[in-house]
Amino acid sequence: MQESFIRIYEKYTAENHAPQLLYTIGRNLVLDSLRRKKRTPAALEDYDHPVDSEEHDFMVREEYRRVLAAMRKLDDDERDLLSLVVSSEMSYREVAQISGISEANVKVKIHRARKKLRTYLEAEKNE
Length: 127
Description:
The protein is an all-alpha fold. It has two domains: 1-39, no CATH class; 43-127, Winged helix-like DNA-binding domain superfamily/Winged helix DNA-binding domain (Arc Repressor Mutant, subunit A). Helices cover 73% and strands 0% of the residues. Helix 4 (76-87) packs across helix 6 and helix 5 packs across helix 6. The longest helix is centred in the last third of the chain and has 24 residues, at 103-126. It is globular, with a radius of gyration of 17 Å. It starts with a helix and ends with a helix. The model has no long low-confidence stretch (mean pLDDT 77).
């Protein structure tokens, strides 16, 4: 986050500080970092949660892997929009402002991404 603000202040004028610019810079920094490390997102072992049983932990980790694998099949813009809506408490209007598309288009893209994700998960389950 700090790096995003630093880049904005170093390279852009004050009138260009749009939320979508900050989002784009932050997204690109994260992607650059992941490419450099060549790793997947943090594993569930890093997440602090109560341990009920080893079997439960295994099931949760497996479901987490399935969802991540299905999300990787989505297009980049679908994955980004879906991640914004699911992982933050932003409204569709705020996501539309950040992404630079209309609120109605955000709703349509989120709906389609969820349908695709559901289809991928069901197809994998049936294999």
